[in-house]
Amino acid sequence: MELCWPLRVVLALLFGTASTGAWRASQPRLQFTHSELIQNGRLLTLPLVAGDLSMLLPDEDGRRLFVALKDNLLSTSLDDITQNPRKLYWPASPDRVQECLMAGKHPETECGNFLRVLQPYNQTHLYVCGTGAFNPRCVFIATSLFLKSDHQSLSYGQTECGKGKCPYDPHQRTASAVVDGELYAGITSDFMSRDSAFFRSLGNRRVMRTEQYDSTWLHGKELTF
Ligand SMILES: *[C@@H]1O[C@H](CO)[C@@H](O)[C@H](O)[C@H]1NC(C)=O
């Protein structure tokens, strides 16, 4: 009997979802196995050095694919991803890297600008945030920027404070979405990663967040902003 209960829970969840007609996972439109792709010669490789790849964002209208890495945002052609991508180099400020190292963090895996938020903002701009060596920063990036040249860079002064938008620690999980010009971010919002919360920012309304140090917000409690 004891073995039965997990199954019943799963069934209850399935029926619960079906009967209320509420949230349903969307189905992938196409599925290929790895071997099918190889057989059809459809397996393409992005020419990237191995490293921290956190997000891919396709822009079907602009036929571009944006790739969020450590210290770099890449833009590659959706029509031929094997072409060399265009690169926007956006490192953490050297001062912050020094502070990060002094705090005992790892030079390669922590004290860099790990891009963790990559959202389409409007027709012309993306909104992107990085951990900035434990000093989160964000910036609006015009997608047309990538048309200008292959390699460009972004300095600290061109970016804005990313607190409440991006985690400090690149190892923390992050969820984000831009809805009607507002950024919703599910992040740990402090240096020690103790404070998990949802934040609403950008746009004209004031910044809002869920209760401080109350992780039940992220574990099943209903959300009312
Ligand atoms: C998109 O948002 C950016 C940043 O707020 C703004 O500068 C730009 O004019 C907007 N573009 C459009 C088409 O509204």
Supply the key terms.
five-stranded mixed beta sheet, alpha+beta, single chain, binds 2-acetamido-2-deoxy-beta-D-glucopyranose, four-stranded antiparallel beta sheet, 225 residues
Notes on the structure:
The structure is a single chain. 16% of the residues lie in helices and 28% in strands. With 225 residues, it is α+β, with helices and mostly antiparallel strands. The chain has a single domain, classed as 7 Propeller (Methylamine Dehydrogenase, Chain H). It has a 5-stranded mixed β-sheet with strand order 1-2-3-4-8, with no helix packed on it. A hairpin with a 2-residue loop joins strand 10 and strand 11 (182-188). The longest helix has 16 residues, at 5-20. The chain is globular, with a radius of gyration of 20 Å. Mean pLDDT is 83; it is low at 1-23. 2-acetamido-2-deoxy-beta-D-glucopyranose binds next to loops. Residues 121-125, 140 line the site of 2-acetamido-2-deoxy-beta-D-glucopyranose.
Give a brief description:
This protein has 225 residues and is of the alpha+beta class. The chain is built from 4 helices and 13 strands. It has one domain (5-218): Methylamine Dehydrogenase, Chain H.
Q: How does the helix and strand content classify structurally?
A: alpha+beta
Q: Biggest β-sheet, characterized?
A: 5 strands, mixed
In CATH, the topology is named Methylamine Dehydrogenase, Chain H
Distance between the termini: 42 Å
